[in-house]
Amino acid sequence: MDSIFKNRDFKLDHIGIAVETLEMGKAFYEGLGFKNMYIEEVPSEKVRVGMFELLNEARIELLEPTHETSPISKFLKNRGPGIHHICFKVEDIQATMKKLTAQGYQLLSQNPVVGAHNCLVVFVHPKSTGGVLIELSQTNN
Ligand code: CO
C-alpha cells in the first residue's frame, strides 16, 4: 500500500502494559534489575502510570486503573494483564492525525489529550491497525 508517511516519521516511545496494580506489575521488571520506577497519575485515562527507562530511549509503561470506568479496567476484565498498546513518538501530532484520517485510519478521539509526561496523545483504533492499539505522542513544551 502506498503511504504518505516516511518510515522515519515514527519512533518507538514506549510499550503500555495493563497491570492489576503497579506493585504486582513491577515485580518482574525489578527482577530483571530495572530500578527507579517513575509514577504519575493520568486523569484523562483514569490510570496510574509506572515508567521504567530502558537502555535505549524507549520505556516500559505499566498501567494501573484508578477507577472501574478506566479503559484499563475494561481491558483487564476482558483479557487480563498484558500488552495494552504501543506508543510511537511523532514530531507533529496534528499533522500525523490529518494524514492518518486521510488514509482511512480510525482515531479514538478528534483531538489529542494530555497524557503521561505532559505529552499530547491520541489513540488509533485497533480495527484499523491489524489488532494493535497504537498511541501517538508528541512532546508538549
Ligand atoms: Co502509553
Secondary structure layout:
Elements (H helix, E strand, L loop, with lengths): L10 E8 L3 H10 L6 E5 L4 E7 L5 E7 L5 H9 L2 E8 L3 H10 L10 E2 L5 E5 L9 E5 L3
Parallel strand pairs: 1-4, 5-8
Antiparallel strand pairs: 1-5, 2-3, 3-4, 6-7, 7-8
The chain binds cobalt (II) ion.
What does this structure look like?
- The protein is of the alpha+beta class and about 140 residues long.
- It is about 20% helix and about 35% strand.
- It contains 3 helices and 8 strands.
- It has helices at about 20-30, 70-80, 95-100; strands at about 10-20, 40, 45-55, 60-65, 80-90, 115, 120-125, 135-140.
- The chain has an 8-stranded mixed sheet.
- A hairpin with a 5-residue loop joins strand 6 and strand 7.
- The N and C termini lie far apart (about 35 Å).
- The model has no long low-confidence stretch (mean pLDDT about 95).
- Bound molecules: cobalt (II) ion (CO).
- Cobalt (II) ion (CO) binds near residues 14, 61, 85 and 135.
Spatial extent as radius of gyration: 15 Å
* Strand fraction: 25-35%
Largest beta sheet: strand ordering: 2-3-4-1-5-8-7-6
The dominant shape is globular
What is the string of SSEs from the N terminus onward? EHEEEHEHEEE
* Largest sheet properties: 8 strands, mixed
Bound molecules: cobalt (II) ion
State the total count of DSSP E strands. 8
Q: On the 0-100 scale, what is the average pLDDT?
A: 93
Regions with little confidence, pLDDT below 50 for 5+ residues: none
Helix content: 10-25%
* Number of distinct helices: 3
Class based on secondary structure composition and strand pairing: alpha+beta
Please give the alpha-carbon distance between the first and last residues.
34 Å
